[in-house]
Design brief:
This protein has one domain: Sandwich (Jelly Rolls), CATH 2.60.120.200. It has one helix and twelve strands; from the N terminus they run αββββββββββββ. The longest helix is centred in the N-terminal third of the chain and has 14 residues.
């Protein structure tokens, strides 16, 4: 009788239309990063430790990422998306991250690095507002490998081996100017 009761309950549970427990979220598991007007950094910025040799993520830029700077030449400044410090040093000594700006009616994506204190950048292409875009960044001995739109771009690196004592770099607006209005970027680690 006990086995019959257990089987009946199990059958009822398996044929039920209700979900028990926390409902899975398949619709949107992105983290939204907000930069307030007049700020450089995202709300609740915490640059946690980074111990990997690379990262893969997806990002969505919404219409808040369309902007105009007060000083026209600052439109060329590269904002930062995501990356990490490297070589057991501060990020303005050694780091790699993706950058972006809104220029000439397009959202442009960049490889943005510091190698032994010297900044270098390279435009990688454009993405569309509202489009889920995939990014990859990894170390490979004395180089960084940036992957954007399926195309790899290699940039120099100051050290080799692991990243050492490193931290994750979150979205940042500027250059010289702060965010002219609130901006939101959604990011999902993959």
């Amino acid at each position: 009788m006990k086995i019959y009761s257990l089987l009946s309950i199990l059958a009822l549970l398996l044929t039920s239309c209700d979900w028990f427990g926390n409902s899975p979220s398949f619709g949107d598991d992105f983290v939204t990063y907000t930069i307030q007007a007049g700020n450089h950094e995202v709300d609740h910025n915490s640059n946690g430790l980074f111990t990997s040799s690379g990262m893969r993520f997806q990002a969505v830029f919404d219409s808040t990422c369309i902007y105009k700077t007060s000083i026209p030449e600052n439109q060329n400044d590269i904002n930062k998306l995501l990356g990490f410090s490297d070589c057991s040093s501060q990020h303005q000594a050694n780091s790699a991250r993706f950058g972006w700006n809104w220029r000439d009616h397009a959202l442009r994506i960049y490889a943005y690095i510091y190698v032994n204190g010297q900044r270098q950048e390279k435009e990688l292409g454009t993405t569309e507002i509202g489009k889920i875009t995939s990014f990859g960044l990894k170390t490979n001995e004395n180089t960084y490998v940036f992957t954007f739109n399926g195309i790899e771009t290699v940039m120099p690196r100051h050290c080799s081996g692991g990243v050492g004592i490193a931290y994750k770099l979150l979205p940042y607006f500027g250059g010289d100017e702060t965010a002219p209005h609130q901006m939101k970027i959604k990011i999902r680690d993959i």
